[in-house]
Amino acid sequence: MKIVLLGPPGAGKGTQAEAIIKRFGIVHISTGDIFRKNIKENTPLGLKVKEYTQKGLLVPDEVTVSMVAQRLEEDDCKAGYMLDGFPRTINQAVELDKILNKAGEKLDCALVITADYAKLTERIVGRRICKGCAATYHVTFNPPQKQDVCDKCGSELYQRDDDKEATVVKRLEEYDEKTAPLIDYYEKQGIVKKVDGQQSISAVEKDIADILSAL
Ligand code: AP5
Ligand code: MG
Ligand code: ZN
Hints:
This protein is of the alpha/beta class. It has a domain at 2-26 and 79-115 and 173-213: P-loop containing nucleotide triphosphate hydrolases (Rossmann fold). It has helices spanning 13-24, 31-40, 44-55, 61-72, 90-102, 117-125, 165-179, 181-187, 201-213; strands spanning 2-6, 27-30, 81-84, 109-114, 127-130, 136-138, 157-158, 192-196. The strands form 2 sheets. Strands 2-3-1-4-8 form a 5-stranded parallel β-sheet, sandwiched between helices. A 3-stranded antiparallel β-sheet has the order 6-5-7. β5 (127-130) and β6 (136-138) form a beta hairpin. The longest helix has 15 residues, at 165-179. The site of magnesium ion (MG) has 4 residues, from α1.
């Protein structure tokens, strides 16, 4: 099963991917998580992308596409994957289609998590991420059992660099301008499914599980 997850910043892509991948035996590939890991480890890729992610701007396509192309060649992707945060421009979607075509494969679904923009800032500003396993929490909507400590691995939680209100505005603009047109792109392929991301985390998860089970 090969899924693309679409939706504005804070819609719940990472939260839902974490919850759903085990059930379907597929891997979660988040380009944002890969960039953050590289920034933390000061790798050449991390140094290259930091200035973009910190400002809420998209990283240039050539950097992102070659990184994803490499990741998709790894063995664990054979069982299927959920792409979270990629593609994010029409050009990235075209490049992904080329990679899939070459391998005689295709996407099963472009899953769009919809959400009212007015709610997103509150979600993003209250988000906390685990330093160890990248699990996502929210200070109000999905708090860990012990404040600032990950339930899953016991590591400390932190706030993302780009989760400041001013940067969120830029990220939403980038989404509107460059990523939202992908919904139409995948509509033309007949693979779009929409989920109301304003429900509770568990209700969204149930809707997604139902959609994927019916594919
Ligand atoms: P990325 O990491 O992909 O960030 P994003 O798209 O802005 O999305 P988020 O991770 O902010 O939101 P999400 O939908 O995953 O929400 P979450 O589940 O965490 O990208 C970061 C940056 O990397 C980009 O700005 C760009 O610079 C670069 N980048 C990445 N990919 C790229 C690409 N392909 N091309 C170019 N550049 C790229 O949930 C948010 C919060 O809400 C959490 O606290 C959660 O607990 C809470 N929550 C979730 N669901 C619910 C619910 N139903 N009710 C209440 N609270 C909820
Ligand atoms: Mg995310
Ligand atoms: Zn953890």
